[in-house]
Amino acid sequence: MGDVFQLLIIVACVAFPFVAMPLMWRRMKRVRNQSYEGSEPVAHQEPWQEPIRSADGVSLSRANSPNDDLIALGAKATRSRWPLDNQ
Questions:
Q1: pTM
Q2: Quick one: pLDDT band at residue 73, thresholds 50, 70, 90?
Q3: Which pLDDT does position 12 carry in this prediction?
Q4: What's the helix, strand, coil split of the chain in %, to 5?
Q5: Span 29-63, pLDDT tens digits
Q6: What DSSP element (H or E) covers 75?
Q7: What values do phi and psi take at 64, rounded to 5?
Q8: Which residues contact residue 84 at a Cβ distance below 8 angstroms, ignoring those fewer than 6 apart?
């Protein structure tokens, strides 16, 4: 009887992660999607360029030009269901 009980405990300990992880993964995806749906879209900054003059007469410029295609691709990746599609 003791051996059967020990075997059941071992089987339960081995099987628990395989049962619990898909359930927790589904819940995490559901909660994350609800939070994304409830959030406001991120406003992207307009491209700008700032000239910088140095003391020796060399002019430099500092620029910010966000790539909206890459930003959209990143937003799409954060909302994807890869690697598991359990919903």
A1: 0.42
A2: confident
A3: 94
A4: 55, 15, 30
A5: 888 888 888 877 777 677 777 788 777 777 787 77
A6: helix 68-78
A7: -130, 110
A8: 22, 25, 29
Buried/exposed 48-68: b ≥16 CB within 10 Å, e otherwise: eeeeeeeeeeeeeeeeeeeee
C-alpha angle 6/10/16, rounded to 5°? 140
Residues in the chain, total:
87
Instruction: Report how far residue 79's alpha carbon sits from residue 70's, in angstroms, rounded to the nearest whole number.
Output: 14
- CA-based end-to-end distance of the chain: 41
Q: Which two tokens stand for residue 49?
A: 């360029």
State the Cα–Cα distance between residues 81 and 72, nearest whole angstrom.
16
Instruction: Name the nearest CA neighbour of 54 among 45, 62, 46.
Output: 62
Please tell me the distance from the alpha carbon of residue 33 to that of residue 66, in angstroms, as a whole number: 25
DSSP 10: H
